[in-house]
Design a protein that fits this description.
The complex is a heterodimer of chains A (372) and B (267).
Chain A: E1 7-9, E2 16-22, H1 27-36, E3 44-55, H2 57-72, E4 76-80, H3 84-96, H4 100-105, H5 111-145, H6 152-163, H7 167-192, H8 198-236, H9 239-245, H10 250-289, H11 293-303, H12 306-333, H13 339-370
Parallel strand pairs in A: 2-3, 3-4
Antiparallel strand pairs in A: 1-2
Helix pairs in contact in A: 1-2, 2-3, 5-10, 6-10, 7-8, 7-10, 8-10, 8-12, 8-13, 10-12, 12-13
Chain B: E1 15-24, E2 27-37, E3 42-47, H1 53-60, E4 68-73, E5 76-77, H2 83-91, E6 93-96, H3 108-119, H4 124-137, H5 154-165, E7 172-176, H6 184-201, E8 204-208, H7 212-218, E9 221-226, E10 229-234, H8 236-240, H9 245-252, H10 254-266
Parallel strand pairs in B: 3-8, 3-9, 6-7, 7-8
Antiparallel strand pairs in B: 1-2, 1-4, 4-5, 9-10
Classes of the chains: A alpha/beta (372), B alpha/beta (267).
């Protein structure tokens, strides 16, 4: 049998003829031919389907649909020539067809439903955030009372991964920040002949704002996202449920040690960032303004009050808690499939950085009121 | 009850696995495995955990290459195929993965429509109709068409995945443990569905399963893998009289016996 493409057409004799391979590969050609068919005249039509060599469910469906459409227009179609086997196939398809309401109704949510879903998602999420906050506070209070119950191994592991391993990148970034600030400052200060004030500029801006902020943002991107992804994956694989079933609280095993590790690591990282950043500024002060390291250090001791350093460091435990809690919370919020892990990881980074910057602004206002 | 078509040996088998050897490092999964699968039959690959059933299936559907040996699919050697041939071949095969492997960011209806969108140039409305029709064939509740995979039960997910595997009207359907993790009623329902589909669409079905009930109920022929070899091949009746101690253990262990007795009582 010569295999030929599917055809449906009206020859001159007024009989609708169907021929060829009515299979999935030829359906698009068929669809075009059907769309181009002249509208049937008269009340009766013979459809000669004996030429159909092969047919799959797709072809069967298209044939039935075509016949059905004609009949609904008031034209009585008698289908002839189709082999019993193919006719049964077509009947099966027709019997299984649920009707057009299904195509219109249940498939895709309309925009109204999307809005509803959005709101119904965000209503309970505030409540779950509060309950997470409460549960983590309660667990940490009980751990303060029983410090031997803290998971020290998890904590030290996270100290290494989120603290020690972050040293190179933190150092590089704040070094560059020191360089940039000193560069920009030196141009301005030179015109006033106020070269030595580069020390004040670099020192205060770095110790008080830039180093803590840059380090926190870096850690939010590096560790906050990792927390969300780790815990989220554990949720998908039901490891969290397994922990609960074994009587281990995910809060005390996963959340608290991570938060504690960041609270320790972030101030230390910031100290390191301070040192490296100021060193970057020192290099530029020397190369651009001719201030020797000795002069820089003497001026630094005189100009930078300890307060600035302490304020910078003092903010970081707050940043650390925000980053860790947002990361862990987003991880725990993961539900259902793997795509949800990615979504919540992104949210954890965005919210983490957002909260760090907002709380930093809040601190600025607070310190301004106190006059420090 | 069992329609045995063991006699319908067509001259060129649909799948011809010849002397396949598979090694992962030092672990030998297959050591000279050969079998043929004929058009129109329901062929089951059985065997204990870790005997390489799934690996063999992955090799046949070109997701993995064997260390040695040849596999012929529709008469073509899959080792020497061009990328275009492979693509054409994939369109003729449907695969139901063990856990469904539905795309989690798409609804059921969208999942089933994916192969149609990808491989045909049909109008959107026709694609939607065909997708719904395929879903209807599998007995998936149509009210749940707009749901996402993680909102479905295991049995529903399996049916939705089967609808996706059938989207392009494949001639050959691979089912990887279709009834594992289903309750007995759902599992029996799924067996029935497989038989129905085969009857309606004249499919050739390769089914990987541990499920002895399924083996008795729907398989025309069964190959039992073990120790990297094909321990036995034949109808369930033939295999249940086999001498091989491992096969004997497989079919006459405590669970095998009940399944066999049930199968007899059904006849």
């Amino acid at each position: 049998m010569i295999s030929s493409a599917a055809r449906i057409y009206f020859p001159a004799d007024g009989v609708l003829r169907c021929e060829g391979q009515w299979t999935i590969n030829h359906l698009s050609a068929l669809e075009r031919q059907i769309a181009a068919l002249p509208t049937a005249q008269g009340e009766r039509l013979v459809c000669e389907a004996g030429g159909i060599q092969a047919m799959d469910t797709g072809g069967a469906w298209v044939l039935w649909r075509t016949v059905n459409k004609l009949e609904r227009k008031g034209c009585r179609v008698s289908l002839i020539g189709l082999s019993t086997e193919l006719f049964t196939l077509m009947q099966t398809a027709a019997k299984k067809w649920p009707g057009e309401e299904v195509t219109k109704g249940a498939v895709r949510a309309g925009w109204l439903e999307e809005i509803g879903r959005f709101i119904s998602q965000y209503g309970p999420s505030t409540r779950s955030a509060l309950s997470f906050l409460g549960e983590s506070s309660a667990t940490s209070v009980s751990l303060i009372a029983h410090p031997w119950q803290i998971r020290w191994r998890v904590l030290t592991h996270n100290l290494q991964v989120d603290g020690f391993n972050a040293l190179p990148i933190t150092g590089l970034l704040t070094f560059l920040m020191g360089v940039v600030i000193a560069y920009q400052g030196s141009e301005q200060l030179k015109t006033f002949g106020a070269n030595i004030f580069i020390v004040d500029l670099v020192g205060i801006s770095l110790l008080r704002e830039i180093a803590p902020l840059v380090t926190a943002i870096l850690v939010a991107g590096r560790s906050g996202s990792a927390y969300a992804a780790q815990i989220g994956t554990m949720r998908v694989t039901e490891e969290l449920d397994a922990l609960r079933a074994l009587g281990i609280s995910p809060m005390s095993l996963l959340v608290i040690p991570r938060a504690l590790a960041l609270v320790i690591a972030l101030p230390l990282l910031t100290v390191f960032a301070d040192v490296v950043g100021v060193f970057g500024g020192m290099l530029i002060a020397w190369s651009q303004l001719g201030i020797t390291f000795g002069e820089f250090v003497v001026r630094f001791e005189y100009a930078i009050v300890l307060r600035h350093y302490l304020i910078g460091i003092g903010k970081t435990p707050v940043f650390a808690i925000l980053i860790a809690l947002v990361g862990c919370y987003q991880g725990l919020q993961v539900s259902g499939g793997v795509d949800s892990v990615g979504r919540h990881t992104t949210i954890s980074v965005v919210q983490g950085i957002f909260l760090v910057i907002v709380s930093d602004a809040f601190f600025s206002i607070l310190f301004n009121w106190w006059g420090v | 009850m069992n329609a045995v078509i063991a006699d319908s040996h067509s001259p060129a088998p649909l799948i011809d696995v010849g002397h396949v050897v598979t090694r992962f490092g030092s672990a030998v999964v297959h050591d000279d495995v050969s079998l043929t699968i004929n058009k129109g039959e329901v062929f089951a690959i059985a065997g204990g955990n870790g005997c390489g059933k799934s690996v063999l299936m992955r090799e046949i559907i070109l997701l993995q290459t064997p260390t040695a040996g040849s596999i012929r699919l529709f008469g073509q050697d899959i080792g020497t195929m061009t990328a275009t041939d492979v693509l054409a071949l994939r369109r003729r095969c449907g695969v139901l993965f063990q856990h469904g492997a539905l795309f989690s960011s798409l609804t059921v209806a969208e999942n089933v429509a994916v192969p149609l969108h990808e491989h045909t140039r049909l109008s959107k409305s026709l694609i939607q109709e065909l997708a719904i029709l395929k879903v209807a064939f599998t007995g998936f509740p149509l009210a749940s068409l707009g749901k996402y995979p993680n909102e479905l039960s295991g049995g529903m997910r399996r049916r939705a995945a089967l609808a996706r595997a059938m989207a392009l009207d494949p001639e050959l359907l691979f089912l990887d443990e279709p009834t594992s993790g289903l309750d007995p009623i759902s599992a029996a329902g799924f067996d029935e569905l497989i038989q129905q589909l085969r009857e309606w669409f004249k499919l050739t079905i390769v089914i990987i399963t541990h499920d002895l009930d399924s083996l008795w109920r729907i398989a025309d022929r069964v190959a039992v893998l073990g120790n990297g070899k094909v321990l036995g091949i034949g109808t369930m009746d033939e295999l249940s009289h086999a001498e091989d101690p491992l096969i004997h253990e497989y079919f006459y262990g405590p669970r095998g016996r009940t399944a066999r007795e049930q199968a007899w009582s059904r006849k």
